[in-house]
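Journal club side-thread
Mid-discussion, someone asked how the predicted structure for our own chain would compare to the paper's figures. Pasting it here so we can look after the session.
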Amino acid sequence: MAKEVERQEKVERKGCRLEKINLPVSGLHCVNCALKIEKTLKKTPGVEEASVNFASNIASVVFDRQQVSEAELVRIIDRLGYQAVREKVELPVKGMSCTSCVSRVEAALKGLKGVIEASANLALARVSVEFIPGETGLSEMKQAIKEAGYEVLTGIGPEPISRTERQAGEELSWLKQRLILGGVLVIPILLGSFRVLLPWLPPFFSNHYLLWFLATIVEFYSGWSFLRGAWLSFLHRTADMNTLVSIGTLSAYLYSAMATVWPGIFYRAGLEPDVYFDTSAVIIVLVLLGRYLEARARSRTFLSLRRLAGLQAQSARVIRDRKEMEIPAEEVVAGDLVVIRPGEKIPVDGQVVEGQSSVDESVISGESLPVFKQPGDEVIGATINRTGYFKFRATKVGKETVLAQIVKKVEEAQASKAPVQRLADKIASYFVPVVISIAILAFIIWFDFGPQPALTRAILSFVSVLIIACPCALGLATPTAVMVATGRSAEKGMLIKSGEALEKAAEVSLVFFDKTGTLTKGQPVVTDIMVSPGVTPDLLLELAAGAEKASEHPLGEAIVRRAGEAGLSIPEPEEFSTKEGQGIKAKVRGQKILLGNFRFLSSAGIKWNQAVNQEIEALENEGKTLVGVASLETGGLLGLLAASDELKEEASSIIKELKDMGLKTVMMTGDHKKTALAVGRQLGLDEVYAGLLPEEKLDIIREFQKSGQLVAMVGDGINDAPALIQADVGLALGSGTDIAMESADINLVSGSLNKVVTALKLSRQARRVIRQNLFWAFFYNLIGLPVAAGVLYPFFQISLNPMIASLAMAFSSVTVVYNSLRLYRIKV
């Protein structure tokens, strides 16, 4: 207690820059764990005091935010091998219209105590917030967003797709109402403004007061969102697209209003009291039209998510209390016995307990061939039963199903930012102030040096510069392409976890492959058994199978399977330990044995004669994988098992296709060199590295990365996880382990290698579209701003009418979005 009072006094004494935060920590096993974290935190610059309570699993930290942030404190704890507990929430935000809005929302949330990261997505109109529970909550986040001038929509729950679509629908409806009214009113405004060209019109059409009345409705009703956005930006001392549109249209509107009410002022200055109500009204209508078309196009980027969500079955037939009944699919609970008839959609994930059938899993895996199912096999919700009748036990329901996880991962990927987007965001943050400066400079130059009527030309040039500028195109260039690409990849059975992974995959120059289970089928068959004198094949097989009984390695499973087929009794291991990537140490039937590759056996002091070496060489030349079995008690070799693993049918064609794409292909394996080289020759690989431990695979990847190459790693096993993480892009086959899937940047839902090529091709197409979008956004502004300022007038007497400028601006962002939507049509 005294220590806590002392710490509080220290915080108050040091000043308001110091803050105290309580970080929940998981993974603490003893007091030393707590002391380790505490000691490391205290050494961190900016940390004044740190105390970790082992009993409560709470790390209390007093820190200076100007030197260290919550995010850095969290990373420090994570790097030590523990986990700072945090939560993540997605908030739908109404009112974001450009990248400046995105920056403002992010800044407001990052200013909250306990917020680790905030990432707003303009295309999705949502913000993702990672925070420390207990330090901040939804109410504080909503308030921060509200104070920034935006609104968090209600209904934050488990249905982000429908919520986002509902939000998009409301926005479209709102824009449509104002667009229609503005479009109707702008017609008489234009007719009255150009009555000199239409002498048959009644004179009252050109009455300035009538035009002023109509333009006022357009300016303050149809254009209200621009004015409100500009005011909120002013209150927060920032500027965005709303600022540009509002200043531009109000300049023309107020100038025209003055000319209508006080025309004498203009006459005394030798000027004609011309009005430009048509300019302000047409600009607002055209910009609204652009926003409406952009919103419609953006709603199509949800198409993939909508399709995925629509795959879910609506009803299920379950057996409860010995009665078969039909219930809504969402009411199925884990443990329910579900009945599936031919042609029906499987409602949730589960395990077959009775019957057999062929199931179409193409909606999940992208593979067209049906998969045979029998008792013990897993079935996935949203897949379709083809021919047979079966029952299965529900194991995963609701958010836990494979389909729900796919939808979640796609949403997370769509909400993420690619590295190139951060550059665009940074440029956009300076964009509006620069545009306003150019507009003011253009006004001064036209007013001081331009031809008569100088004031009119200066105002029109000022308005044109403000209106033609379009930061929205910059803000939408990357996220819309990422949304479409990640959504389409999910439809094809590939889960790209982030925009960064998508961008890096397009830059890959070299692809590493694991062998077993990746290039091969991962179902090796024991083909040869060789024993030492005094050992029978059955005894060797029993000892090896007992040691491998708990193993998940394909070779271990092959040994156990062979023993079972031989009708042998497989003993339980009395002791068991593994050395990752090398072998097993076990005690089976009272005998201590080693089982693994011959490098592992040699390092343990096991000896064998030259005749065994000749047998090893002969089998390895046939491309077979060898497993030695040795006795720790005698130090001698008991025998060896040889296994052969067939290559996947598509492996050879995939390697050729990758080479045609200009990529180098390399295989890394723990197998013996001769076995690996045999596979390498068969597939036509560029390089083969054999006899590797998991850490040696990492060293090879690092060496290639140091030479400047961006590398991808394709794998499926637990021992591949470190390499998948180290590689710039990790691709895990869906037939692999959960650890491999979690470690990878791209999950290929099926075990097919074809998806590797598809993923890399799609990422290249997405990169091309992103580059096109960014080029257009930069090129448009680079050319449009000088033209609007009047640089062509001295040479060609060409100046840009503000109405034309607004038309160009309206369609610039629409062009970017529609270009991104092309990814739906591009073949990969």
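Post-session note: The chain is about 50% helix and 20% strand.
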